[in-house]
């Protein structure tokens, strides 16, 4: 039986971990065995830049935290080396960990995770990873919304440059039906 000081320190770690997991909208569990310090440094930098809390956690501590939150289904995944990526952004941890797993094939494997209070499988995490980052999605939506307005502005600019005159193609289209109408009257 561990002494009281060690036990209270471990309980504090579990309490902090439980709080982090409760606050996170999404989390991804990863088996990181075999990655180098350099690869880990790059991964941690990318996580920080995207607001993802990435840390290596002891399986026992994580098991207690998951059971406190109600993610007991993840107990089966808590073996070997385990790291946890948490974020309030649902897509960010899945995208970052999935990209890392592709780069470091065999060294870095996604075990599973959770999202919005539910445990999710590897297929769900991979489908989340396929979603572009939020700024990219915002730019795509904005571009889609601006396309018709931009087209209208270009047309209006061309009309203004011609001094309000109709384009030659438009005049030809207007004159062609008029010529056809006058032709039968001539007979």
Question: How would you briefly describe this protein structure?
Answer:
This protein is of the alpha+beta class and 187 residues long.
| Strand arrangement, major sheet | 2-3-1-4-5
From N to C, what is the helix and strand string? HEHEHEHEEHHH
Strand content: 5-15%
Give the count of helical stretches.
Answer: 7
What is the terminal separation in angstroms?
115 Å
CATH class category name of the largest domain: Alpha Beta
Question: What does the secondary structure layout of this molecule look like, with pairings?
Answer:
Blueprint: H1 4-23, E1 26-31, H2 37-49, E2 53-56, H3 59-69, E3 83-87, H4 92-103, E4 109-115, E5 118-120, H5 122-129, H6 134-161, H7 168-186
Antiparallel strand pairs: 1-3, 1-4, 2-3, 4-5
Helix pairs in contact: 1-3, 4-5
Key features of this structure:
single chain, 187 residues, alpha+beta, Alpha-Beta Plaits, five-stranded antiparallel β-sheet, 7 helices, elongated
Describe this protein's structure.
The protein has helices at 4-23, 37-49, 59-69, 92-103, 122-129, 134-161, 168-186, and strands at 26-31, 53-56, 83-87, 109-115, 118-120. It has a 5-stranded antiparallel sheet with strand order 2-3-1-4-5, with helices on both faces. The protein contains 7 helices and 5 strands, in the order H-E-H-E-H-E-H-E-E-H-H-H. By secondary structure, the chain is α+β, with helices and mostly antiparallel strands. A hairpin with a 2-residue loop joins strand 4 (109-115) and strand 5. It has 2 domains: 4-131, Alpha-Beta Plaits; 136-186, no CATH class.
């Amino acid at each position: 039986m561990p002494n009281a000081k060690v036990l209270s320190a471990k309980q504090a770690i579990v309490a902090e971990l439980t709080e982090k997991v409760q606050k996170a909208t999404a989390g991804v569990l990863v088996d990181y065995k075999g990655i180098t310090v350099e690869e880990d440094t790059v991964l941690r930098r990318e996580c920080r830049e995207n607001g993802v809390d990435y840390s290596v956690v002891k399986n026992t501590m994580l098991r207690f935290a998951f059971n406190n939150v109600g993610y007991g289904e993840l107990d089966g995944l808590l073996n070997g080396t385990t790291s946890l990526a948490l974020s309030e952004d649902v897509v960010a941890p899945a995208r970052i960990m999935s990209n890392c797993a592709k780069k470091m094939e065999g060294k870095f494997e996604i075990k599973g995770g959770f999202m919005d209070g539910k445990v999710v499988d590897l297929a769900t995490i991979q489908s989340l990873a396929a979603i572009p980052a939020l700024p990219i999605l915002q730019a795509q939506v904005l571009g889609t919304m601006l396309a018709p307005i931009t087209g209208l502005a270009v047309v209006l600019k061309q009309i203004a440059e011609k001094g309000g005159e109709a384009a030659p193609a438009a005049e030809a289209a207007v004159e062609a039906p008029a010529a056809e109408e006058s032709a039968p009257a001539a007979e």
